[in-house]
Amino acid sequence: MKKKVVLGLMVGTLTLGIGTGALAATGLEQIKAYLNSKITLKMNGATVTAKDANGKTVLPITYNGTTYLPVRAVGSLLGTEITYDSATSSVLIGGTNGSAPVTNGKVTLSALGTSVLGSTAWHTKDPKDTTYKGKDYKNVYLHNDPTKQGDDIQINTGKKYSSLHLELAALKGNQEIHIYDQDLATLKKFNITPESGMMSLDVDVKGTDAVYVEIVSEDPDSALFVPLTTSYLTK
Questions:
Q1: How far apart are CA 113 and CA 98, in angstroms?
Q2: pLDDT per residue over 161-205, tens digit each?
Q3: What is the DSSP letter of 91?
Q4: How far apart are CA 119 and CA 137, in angstroms?
Q5: CB 6 within 8 A of CB 68
Q6: DSSP single-letter state for residue 103
Q7: Residue ranges of the Copper amine oxidase-like N-terminal domain (predicted)?
């Protein structure tokens, strides 16, 4: 039987540093588990070490054939903020103010909350709408209905990012697209057609509070496909 490695939460100082007083809290159940020093963590091919907030190495725990990793230590490796709200007994992943997981200085548009990523009328996770040329992107903006409000994608950057990497494809029709900042200064403009395939471009967004990707003209019955899982912002 293959052991599963999951990003889990175990009670004790191994994870969120919950004090001994909390061990008597309602909902805790005593178990017999094992520290597993044989598990090696690798991230993007490189071996990494999980450490707690004090810099001490922490080990995975194996329980009933499943290996649990310390959530705060793994969050630190991934560049994701992990906090514990004792008032609500909640583990907060990614903060509470619209922040999103950052890996290697990048945050995908799919990870941004609704307070940051606008144009929700275009948003879909429906499998019948998220596949392009055989690849399912899981989470996309699809503009194929003229009755949907707005002709742009809004990204509230809040002066936090330096670059926007955008991927997009025209499913139908020729389209002219302009990218503006909050002052309507043009950052980039281009044309896209179905023959363009999946187009990739990078836009300098330093100092911007918001970025708008707007379709300024399009053929009738056009459709624009923007995968949020492969488009990202860079710090």
A1: 6
A2: 999 999 999 999 999 999 999 999 999 999 999 999 999 999 999
A3: E
A4: 18
A5: yes
A6: B
A7: 57-121
Angle CA 104–105–110, to nearest 5: 95
Residues with Cβ within 8 Å of residue 55, at least 6 apart in sequence: none
Q: What is the three-class DSSP state of 76?
A: helix
Every domain of the chain with CATH number 2.60.120.200 lies at 106-234
CATH number at 106-234:
2.60.120.200
94 contacts 100 by C-beta, under 8 angstroms: yes
Q: What pLDDT is recorded for position 122?
A: 74
- How many of the other CB atoms lie within 10 Å of CB of 220? 7
pTM for this one? 0.56
DSSP 145: -
DSSP code per residue over 3-67:
PEEE----SSTTTT---GGGGGSTT------EE-TT--EEETTEEE--B-TTS-B---EEETTEE
